[in-house]
Every structure is written in structure tokens, then in C-alpha cells.
Amino acid sequence: MRQAGVYSGILSGGGISGRTGPHLLPLARIKKIMKKSSVDVKMISGEAPLVFSKACELFIEELTKRSWNMTIQGKRRTLHKEDVASALATTDVFDFLINLVYPNASDHPNLNEEYTEKKQ
Amino acid sequence: MVDEHDKLLPVANVGRIMKQMLPPTAKVSKEAKETIQECATEFISFVTGEASDKCHKENRKTVNGDDICWALASLGFDDSSEAIVRYLSKYREFEREKAAASSSATSVVKEENVDKASAGSSNS
């Protein structure tokens, strides 16, 4: 098993984020999730979980940033699930997640409006 | 017995990444953290599915880094896609340098063995 820290040190020194240190997400867990995603997934190259560790980091950062904006708009200092739901509802690229957070979109006041508009 | 948590990214790791984006005084509810944990896990499944479809159509068995980059762009994660392409090229460069270093070390060892063998044969 490779040492994650070695790669990160090489890759992130002067790299995209400039952050050093070990991977923020465990590669074995990522690989497990990938395998479970579809019956078609047979083999996964060594670099794929590594790529996802970075992609997920960026994803979490983006979602957190947008969710926090909702928190601020509500004049609060605690990020709640509703803020995450609002961030999902107002970002097109996160559409695939709306049903994950609220299986019935009508449960959420902000989502109901968005959901109805999109259906029309 | 399957642990449910094995199916998700670890919440502690997710929390750490979130913290980096927030001011020091910000608080995050446990439920919000778990929600983002689920979203990030679903993100992996979603993108992998797209990448896997592409491999399937092209009769390839292995999902590689390029497929992930393509899937990210295809699904609208343009900014991520560009950053990941750069990350991937650096990783591949590192792998190439590592392979080159280990093969030159191997060839040095081979030369030594040849010298020893010829020295041995001359003695007999």
C-alpha cells in the first residue's frame, strides 16, 4: 500500500491548492464507493480514487461555501441542513442531490418553489 | 455484518474539509455535516456511473483518471474538471519519474551482476 503523504507532498507543492499533507479522504473507501455505484464498474485504475479524493475535496468545499452563504443570509452562525438543501436547490449542477436530501421536494419550503418551476 | 458507515465517506474527514472553508467562529450542525457526507458519497457514485458508461460504450474494462475528468466536465463540474486534469498530469509525471528512477537502479544492479558473472567464469 502506497504512502499517501509522499504523493500529496509532491503533487500539492506549488500545485492547485498549495496545501501539503496526506490525502484528506481515504482512497480505499473511495474505491469501495466507486465499485458499489454500478454493476458495470469492473476494474478501477490506481489513479481513479486519487482523482476522486481531489474532486470530492473541491465538491465539499463548493457545497460548504454555498451552504454557508445561506446561513449568512439567514443571519445565523450555525450551518444547518436547511442551508445545504437551499444551496443544492439554487445550484443547477447539484440537481442530482436534491432528492437525496429531501426525497419529497415539497417537504422543504424553498425547494417546493424551485421544484414546481422546473417541472413546468 | 456490513457496517453502514462503510458505504459513506468518513464524516470526520468531510468535517475537516468543511472547516477549511468556514470562518473560525462558524458552527456546523451534526445533521448538516452528515448531509454533506451523503452528498459527497453520492457525488462519487454519480460521476463514476457516467465514467463507467463511457468505458462500457468504448468496450474498455478499466475506469481511469481521464474517464473521471471527462465525466466531471460532462456533468457540468467544469471548474473541478480543469483542476483535476492538472492534478492528474502531475501525478502521472511523478509516476513516470519514479518508474525511470527504479529502472535505472535495476540496470545498475544488472551491470554489477554481469561483471560478477564474467569475473566468475574467468576464474573457472
Which key terms come to mind for this protein?
heterodimer; A: 120 residues; mainly alpha; 6 helices; 2 strands; 3% strand; B: 124 residues; Histone, subunit A; 4 helices; 77% helix
Descriptive notes:
The complex is a heterodimer of chains A (120) and B (124). Chain A is mostly helical and 120 residues long. Chain A has helices at 4-12, 27-37, 47-73, 81-89, 98-101, 109-119; strands at residues 43-44, 78-79. Residues 3-21 and 112-120 of chain A have low confidence and may be disordered. Chain B is mainly α and 124 residues long. Chain B has two domains: 1-76, Histone, subunit A (Orthogonal Bundle); 78-124. Chain B has helices spanning 11-21, 30-57, 65-74, 78-123, and strands at residues 27-28, 62-63. Chains A and B meet through helix 1, helix 2, strand 1, helix 3 and strand 2 of A and helix 1, strand 1, helix 2, strand 2 and helix 3 of B.
User: Based on helices, strands and strand pairing, what is the structural class of chain B?
Assistant: mainly alpha
Estimate what percentage of residues of chain B fall within beta strands.
under 5%
Structural class of chain A: mainly alpha
**How many β-strands of chain A, per DSSP?**
2
Helix content of chain B: over 70%
Instruction: Please report the number of helical segments of chain A.
Output: 6
Order of helices and strands of chain B: HEHEHH
End-to-end Cα distance of chain A? 52 Å
What's the helix count of chain B? 4
Distance between the termini of chain B: 65 Å
Name the chain pair with the biggest interface and residue counts per chain: A-B, 58 and 61 residues
Largest sheet of chain A: none
- Total count of domains of chain B: 2
Net shape of chain B: elongated
Please give the radius of gyration of chain B in angstroms. Answer: 24 Å
